[in-house]
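Reopening this one. Same input as before:
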Amino acid sequence: MEPDTHAIDPLPLAGITVVAVEQAVSAPFATRQLADLGARVIKVERPDGGDFARGYDTAAHGLASHFVWANRGKESIALDLKDPRGREVLHGLLEGADVFVQNLAQGAAARLGLDSAALCARYPRLVAVDVSGYGAEGPYAHKRAYDMLVQCEAGLVSVTGTPERPVKAGIPAADIAAAMYAFSGVLAALLRRGITGRGGRVEVSMLDALAEWMGHPLHHTMHGGEQPVRTGLAHAVIAPYDAYPTSDGDRVLLSVQNDREWRRLAEQLLERPELADDPGYATNAARTANREKTDAVVAGALGRLGADEAIERLEAAGIACARLNSVAQLAAHPQLEARDRWREVGSPAGPLRALLPPIGLPGGAAPHMGAVPALGQHTELLLLALGMTGEQITALRRDGVVR
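Same output, byte for byte:
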């Protein structure tokens, strides 16, 4: 029989079940990546309010924006894990699970018998992931580890901002870094399980993850002897490289990478061709040493143009450039629109716009972009699937073990 060349490949994690005792951003964002690739993700939440990220804000039609972003496509079961009956339900779920992810406060999972070492001993095929702030050992192991705090400890804040003032990243960079290493760690462990038949432990800390992302300034400092200076939107060793105001109130960033590009900029945009050979501007070293005057010349030229015209002329000259977009402008970005990157996902507040996941699998099934769950939305269905009777479920609800 001829092979069916038109068959659509299934999502790569179809058939994989993930159980997650998770909160905030790092673990939920990791498991959302798994859900997007087809895994079934069962999110275990506290009955008294659930994942505390549900209460961060009400910006997404009454729902919390962090929660909407990191939790689509999951099933929510509300369990009190401090009650032995709640833990028994959890272990019933783990019997059929491939992956377990947790990011409870350091030591809390171990007290419940849910640390990766204990679970891998009990379930040899399970991939068990511990996501922590600073790791399980060392003097910082029990230190509170919110994203901004880890950004500070990892030195990210020290290299972000202006010469006068350090600032944190405007997104939860430490959470995202840890999430993506947890996600890739799960994929690696599942590949290994396919060879050995055994699951195993995965450990990721926010500090380790963000310290890895700090590789350039870290090596620059350790081996070069000096920490890179904060330069705002400018570049420490390239000029011109900054965002400049345009006549319509926008800002356009441009980057001149070499002296040939500077010549084109001087001739075609600045309309001052003599600057191409002027010793004060002709080389990148000279322009960097002469940064204030260089920036003033560029700012003067762009300030006479609207953003659209500035972009058009820069691109015609072969100069790398970009708009300094707001978040609202990102939401309306023409490239995202042209590539059909937007979808709608369900939620307790109705349909919400969401971006397709960045990992594309051409020729395969579409990413799983399921609804954002309400707290405990799937509790009864999951308990029934474990073989519980209606009377047993009613008793658990009455005692506050489930919701």
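So the earlier flakiness isn't reproducible anymore. For the record, The CA atoms of residues 77 and 382 lie 7 Å apart.
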